[in-house]
Design a protein that fits this description.
Chain lengths: 273, 247
């Protein structure tokens, strides 16, 4: 097991950020950690990375404490958005990070994999949002680790850039494990082998995207009604359709489908609408 | 990875990131020499017998200012920042990170003190042998340690916004009461009574012992005691910071 959380509890004063969170990441997995803002994702990541300690429960990274330096040598992490020392160059930052690892990835090769070779002499303060994200990923990959933790690796990028970046990530990571957070559900669906949904500090779902869409049970009903298109996610689809027909109101193009991942996620974290 | 090489790597990035900010470098490196030129240079020229002690006092103050700001303000402003958070996920112990910070502060401290020394050499009859200058260098570095720890304590116990006024107040009050701006002899009697117990005065005494003045033994004992107290407060503050939430 690479990372294991067991009944982890963490409170900040009165606020319970994690309330008995348990999950595990194994080999050859790409796991997306999803949840609304304030769900406890950040706290869970910070505990996994050894930045915080938990109040109760156990956290194991490669079977050791996540504060252990030996365990962290096997881990590559992305910094959060826009977090570089402005006056350092791209190359200086990459070399600095590489110096921490016993067998770092080749620097020139990693820089060019993420398209930074031409701007290695640029100051970090002058990088655009997309370039900063690529530098953040470069730092996780320069570690040449067994496990990547990517905290919102593509936030702020457009769809094409996100897809291109994920192609590079999947290519460069090979079959090594990745845990990532994202606000883009389609990114989780496209790249994760498993999705974890966390809310109120608890694990609500653990499985693949397909299962998540099935799990919530609800169906999506769309039709063209009197006043234009209607989209509904009724609790009981059959009863809803029966009521629609019995009402005698004109409608056309009735369609019943599984919810999108987005809708399934909203239903799961907010309860049925 | 060798801990020494890692400390060097941390020192290098911190030093480069600061030295490239003129807004940091100019006030930090130039102010102590400027204050020295305004307040003490005339006195050192009219009373040549005081030239050594006056310059040594400002050398102490140069080191104190750099360390208090570098740690007190630097840590307070950086502790919630993404880069600091990221660096803490790297496989390096807290001692490597602090080692880098201490080395950076000492480098800037020595540069700042060297500017004061150069001004003193150029414009006053200060007269130290090479051996004495070497002792000044060693004492300036060693005497800076308790101020590093006082700075770290401020950095972890005071908010980013309050850190600049706090570090400034501590720096100016202690420099005055410690007799670094004017010789302890001229301090008001109340201040003169508490002066020997202040770390600034003890740092001054340590450096003055190079020219046969100041109570070196009492100074060393005091500085060790202050290091122990603030080392403890700094460690408690660091742990306390880990339990805080940054939105």
């Amino acid at each position: 097991m690479i990372l294991a959380f067991e009944d982890v509890v963490k409170s900040y004063g009165e606020v319970r950020a994690l309330d008995g969170l348990s999950f595990a990441v194994g080999r050859n997995e790409i796991v997306a950690l999803l949840g609304p803002n304030g769900a406890g994702k950040t706290t869970a990541l910070e505990i996994a990375l050894g930045l915080r300690s938990c109040d109760f429960g156990t956290v194991r990274l490669f079977g050791e404490s996540s504060r252990s330096i030996a365990a962290r040598r096997r881990l590559g992490v992305t910094p959060q958005e826009s977090g570089f020392p402005d006056m350092l160059t791209v190359a200086e930052i990459v070399v600095f990070v590489a110096q921490h690892y016993p067998a770092p990835a080749p620097i020139a090769q990693t820089l060019s994999a993420f398209g930074l070779e031409a701007m290695k002499k640029r100051r970090a303060g002058t990088l655009s949002g997309g370039e900063s994200r690529r530098l953040a990923l470069t730092l996780a990959f320069i570690a040449n680790p067994e496990f990547f933790v990517l905290d919102e690796p593509t936030t702020g990028l457009d769809v094409q850039s996100r897809r291109r970046l994920w192609e590079v990530v999947r290519e460069a990571s090979g079959d090594r494990s990745i845990l990532f957070t994202t606000h883009y559900l389609e990114e989780a669906q496209a790249n994760a082998t498993r999705i974890l949904v966390v809310d109120h500090g608890r694990l609500l779902f653990d499985g693949d995207a397909q299962t998540l869409r099935e799990r919530v049970g609800a169906r999506r009903v769309t039709y063209l009604g009197q006043h234009g298109p209607v989209v509904a996610m009724p609790g009981d689809t059959d009863a809803y359709v029966r009521a629609l027909v019995n009402s005698g109101a004109p409608f056309s193009n009735l369609e019943i489908s599984k919810p999108s991942l987005e809708e399934a996620f909203l239903l799961l974290t907010k309860g049925p609408a | 990875m060798n801990a020494f090489l890692l400390v060097r790597a941390h020192t290098k990035v911190q030093f480069l990131d600061l030295i490239r900010w003129p807004g940091y470098v100019v006030p930090t490196v130039v102010f102590p020499a400027m204050f020295y030129s305004i307040f003490d240079l005339p006195a050192a020229r009219t009373h040549p017998q005081n030239a050594d002690t006056l310059a040594l006092a400002f050398i102490a103050w140069a080191v104190i200012g750099v360390t208090l700001y570098q740690f007190g303000v630097g840590i307070a402003q950086e502790r919630g920042r993404p880069w600091e958070r990221y660096v803490r996920t790297l496989p390096a112990s807290v001692w490597v990170r602090f080692g880098g910070r201490i080395a950076t502060a000492l480098l800037f401290g020595v540069i700042t003190a060297a500017v004061v020394a150069l001004v003193a050499r150029a414009f006053t009859p200060i007269d130290l042998t090479v051996a004495q200058w070497l002792r000044v260098l060693v004492y300036a570095i060693a005497g800076g340690i308790p101020f590093v720890l006082i700075g770290i304590t401020i950095g972890y116990w005071v908010s980013a916004r309050a850190s600049v006024p706090t570090a400034t107040a501590v720096n100016l009050l202690l420099a005055y009461a410690g007799g670094l701006w004017m010789p302890p002899l001229y301090l008001p009697s109340f201040v003169a009574t508490i002066s020997p117990y202040l770390p600034t005065r003890q740092f001054g005494d340590l450096l003055w012992s190079v020219v046969g003045q100041g109570n070196a033994l009492r100074a060393v004992m005091g500085l060790v005691l202050y290091s122990a107290i603030f080392g403890l407060l700094a460690a408690v503050g660091y742990r306390r910071d880990e339990r805080k939430r940054y939105a």
